[in-house]
Write a structure and sequence with these properties.
Order of helices and strands: HHHHHHHHHHHHHHHHHHH
Number of domains: 1
Shape: globular
Strand content: under 5%
Number of helices: 19
Oligomer: single chain
Distance between the termini: 25 Å
Largest sheet: none
Number of strands: 0
Structural class: mainly alpha
Length: 410
Amino acid sequence: MASSHEILASPREIPAEPGQRERWADNLRVLVIAVVVVWHTATAYLAGADWYYMDRSTSKVWSTALVPAWIISGYALGPLFLVAGWFSARSLAHKGAGAFARARLLRLGIPLIIFIFLINPLASYLGELGRGGHASLARDLGAGQGAGPMWFVAALLAFSLAYAMLRHMHAPPVTRRLSGDQVMVAAALLIAVTAFVTWRWWPPDDASTFWHLQWESWPQGAGLFALGVRAGEAGSLEDLAGRARRLGWTALAAVVLLVALAGYEQARGQGESTLHGAGWAAILGTILYGIISVAFAVWFTVLIRARWSSGGPVRARAGRASYATYVLHPLVLTAIMVLLASLAAAPELKFLVVAVVAVPVCFLAGDAATRVPGISKALLLAFQGALDDHLGQLARQPALAGQGPPGLRQ
């Protein structure tokens, strides 16, 4: 097994083959988005947040059994923000701030608009049909109804444009004053402070945020995106990955402490204080949240790159289609649920059936969408395009193939 230094060395240390894809990044995206599909299936049949169609189990056991999954769901997209920031540094360095911002508006803005005004209303319409309600496609199309699961894309677009503006005004620093450990501590504190402030208005249990953009999750995304940018501009993640195994244990210990804190406050009849309050419990809760966010994202990213960097043609196609899969999965998943609505089975059994069926079907739909002329450009993976563009330049200019760029771009 290669060491973390060998796995995460910068392109200057280990040049990539011209045209070579970052398979580990494909694998990470596929895995995270598959987990998202399964989790949204669980919300419809077992417990959790609302979904477009619901046939939820009446058993209260699932509310307790799914607590670990609910906790994980709060951090599942963190590695994607980290990797997006890391690869964004390469894209901006290659294209310049203006072209980078325009590319992000195309790759993220257009799918976001399509989802809000077309895919989201269609999913709502199908869900109403499945529940036997008074469905009205014209009404749903006119309503728009917000970003839904695409809050992630809206946040990534905002962070990308802010990064482009920053680099348009200020060049990246030549020297780095902080070590990798210090940068991770700073990122954790940044997430904790901004989450503490943000949660005063939009706590994690509030589903009524403007256009369902889930503002409560933006501090985590911003901190991890910034951490990825810093690593990308430095040319390597190696300084973050030196203690990867310890980071995994740190994340686990912080989760245990956070659960213990929530249990303690619940026993005192102050269960909401860790989310809504301003006392010591809320402060400690947000600090633990920041620690988990950084430790888990870095540990998971390092783990995937070190141990799952290979892939065949099917996995490569799934990686290319992963962004389109994320955009389309609410509509595809809801359609599958509605088709199986008449199945005479317990919700728990339906969950298992739909989860097994939905993951490959959603990826097939995403793959099909990327092959439609015109749509393929709009639905390219948000943080994959610049990497492909740059590798194409290297392939056409062999003399540059051995000169690694300052970071990686997805």
